Amino acid sequence: MAAELVEAMNMVKSFRVSDLQTLLASMGRSKSGLKQDLVGRALRLVQTEYSPELLKSVRQLYETRFPKASGWLAARRPEGVPVSYSPHHNTSPRGAVQGADYLNGVPKAPQAAPAPEVKLVSLPFYQTLEILLQPTELIAQNNEKLQDSQCVFDLTQSQVEQIRNSNEHRPGIKSVQVVLRICYTDSVGVQEDQYPPNIAVKVNQSYCHVPGYYPSNKPGVEPRRPCRPINITPWLHLSTATNRVTVTWGNFGKRYSVAVHLVRVFTSAELFNQLQHCSVESADRCRERIKDKLRFDPESEIATTGLRVSLICPLVKMRIGVPCRVLTCAHLQCFDAVFFLQMNEKKPTWTCPVCDKPAPFELLTIDGLLSEILKETEDVEEIEYLTDGSWRPIRDDKEKDRERERSHTPEYPLVDICIPEANGHSPAHSSTSQTGKSGSGSTSAPSAAGGAVVDLTLDSSSEEEGGGAGGDSEDTEDSQDSPSPKRGRYDYDKDLVTAY
């Protein structure tokens, strides 16, 4: 028992912070503090509460930290050095029993996946056909920041033929591919693809392409890298020869696992066809959903009599072609299915554009009722669902508002003062200059063209009126006998004012 206690304490001393926190949390102890505090707390736990269950937990964490069976080799291992691991080992970490024979670092017989068991999330655009290498943790060989790990695997003849005979996903790229997937080493839940820092992938001595960073348009926001499966098919030996993959990664405290899958890649058009055939909600079911939304609730103080839905896609601000929404979302607003799939093919986010909640492909559905409405309406941008499941366009209300505005708008006669004469002056100026000698009674006479005449001489002073008459004595006497005209708001010189 003393030897096992010393052995358990040595295991604890080699744990990382995450391992120490897992051990302390499983035993109901606090997992906060620095690493030296966690190590001391774990050592006291082993000394004071030593039990077979505690020893088993320590050994499981130690085996996770230093797995015995792995298809990954140190990059600096000389070629030709045999590698022999055993999936079965005794209770002591120092002793191991020789098991199955290995060839080029890969066991001849299928072995169990290294602990912890990591499950990768399924991707809509990638259908997994076969798993060539189970998720295996990347193990650091030293204390350097950049680490190299290698993997070797073989393709069967049927797999090679499957790749060669597949259709082209894009020009020069097959639809059946061998991809490399990388994620965090975590056995809780399913893991999404996540690249380690400073990643580089070499396949058979040739570096392959790894997706780069998305440029960020927002100031102060770091560019984000799309973590998706890495296609390594162009650099493989499409034969039964052994393929070797080397992963260069940054060792900055986080643990990563890698896997190799044989997949079939779909396009957005192919996913759209699947959506049309497998996930369409009938119009009757949509009406029932609307009635449930608008059903009167006696406990509610607000009664909802209608729900407005826009026929414009929130993604591209265009009219929706194929209405789509997520089954788990509470809203009835839809978005265009074709644009949504195309955007996720380029930049996978799978987020609802209406409420920003997760929108996985498995939960997408086509709204049958809104599809019928889109066919019946062409120039309507918004509709309203009613309590009985029916709908009405909002276009009628807008037209009524426009007519109501027109009916309350007063009508005024139009005055045409924009017809220039031959001399370049306006009709008002010409008529006043001609009728100035005939007296004030002729100022209201219509012009020869039949339009309305605006006499601007009413705003001028009596002195200017006398001067404009050319010094005629008769006009001066008439102007003295007649009452003086009212002054306008502004003083204008009739010879300078020209209206066009």
TrEMBL record:
The listed locations are: Nucleus
Spell out the protein name for this chain. RING-type E3 ubiquitin transferase
Domain (SP-RING-type) ranges: 298-379
- Residue ranges of the region described as Disordered: 393-500
Q: Keywords in UniProt for this one?
A: DNA-binding, Isopeptide bond, Metal-binding, Nucleus, Transcription, Transcription regulation, Transferase, Ubl conjugation, Ubl conjugation pathway, Zinc, Zinc-finger
Low complexity composition-biased segments: 430-460
Cite a single GO MF annotation.
zinc ion binding
What's a Pfam family in this record?
A: PINIT
Protein family per UniProt:
Belongs to the PIAS family.
In terms of PANTHER family, this protein maps to: E3 SUMO-PROTEIN LIGASE PIAS4, ZINC FINGER MIZ DOMAIN-CONTAINING PROTEIN
Q: Where is the PINIT domain?
A: 106-266
Q: Which biological pathway?
A: Protein modification; protein sumoylation
GO (cellular component) term, any one: nucleus
Q: Which EC class does it fall in?
A: transferase
SAP domain location: 12-46
What catalytic activity does the UniProt entry give for this protein?
A: S-ubiquitinyl-[E2 ubiquitin-conjugating enzyme]-L-cysteine + [acceptor protein]-L-lysine = [E2 ubiquitin-conjugating enzyme]-L-cysteine + N(6)-ubiquitinyl-[acceptor protein]-L-lysine
Q: Which organism is it from?
A: Denticeps clupeoides (denticle herring)
Regions of biased composition (Basic and acidic residues) lie at 393-409, 488-500
- The EC number(s) attached to this protein equal 2.3.2.27
Q: Report the record's Gene Ontology biological process terms.
A: protein sumoylation; regulation of transcription by RNA polymerase II
Q: What is its main location?
A: nucleus
Q: What is the lineage of its organism?
A: Eukaryota, Metazoa, Chordata, Craniata, Vertebrata
What are the Acidic residues biased-composition ranges? 461-480
